[in-house]
Amino acid sequence: MPEASFYILQTHSLSDRFLFACKLIEKAYRNGQFCYVYTDSLHQSQQLDNQLWTFRENSFIPHQLYDGVDNIAPDYQQTVLIGTQTAPEKWQKLIFNLSSNYPENLKKTARVLEILDNNEALKKAGRQRFRQYRQDGFEVSAHKI
Prior knowledge:
This protein is α/β, with parallel strands linked by helices. The chain has a single domain, classed as Rossmann fold. The protein has three helices and seven strands. The chain has helices at residues 14-30, 42-54, 120-135, and strands spanning 3-8, 36-38, 63-66, 80-83, 94-97, 111-116, 139-144. It has a seven-stranded parallel sheet with strand order 3-4-2-5-6-1-7, with helices on both faces. The longest helix is centred in the N-terminal third of the chain and has 17 residues, at 14-30. The radius of gyration is 14 Å and the shape is globular.
C-alpha cells in the first residue's frame, strides 16, 4: 500500500520547510532512494536547488531542475529532480510534495512526503490533500516536528 507522510513544522518559514526537506532528501539519497521534489513555482524550485548546495557543509546530493519540456531526465538515476511538472516515470516512486497541489499520476508512487509549516492556509490545503490521499488508497500518517 502506498504511503503519504505529513510533517508539520512549528515555524512559518518557507526556508525552514526547505531546510527540513533537504535533510529528508539527504536521508533518502543516503539510503539509495532517488526522488522528485514537486514545488509550486520555478522560483521555489530554484530556491530549493540553491539550498541543497548549501544546507550542510560536507553534504553532496546530485540534483537538477526539471521543467518537463526542455530537460531530459538525467542518465544517472540517483539524481534528485526538482520541478513543477509531473514527475518523470523513473522518479515517481518517492515524491516530496512542497507544493500546494495534489501531485498528478501517483500510480507508481510508493511514498509521498508532505512538508507543511504552521501557516493556516497551507495546513488547510494540506488537510484536503490528506483526505485525497486516503480516498486514493494511501496509508496516511502525520508527524508534528
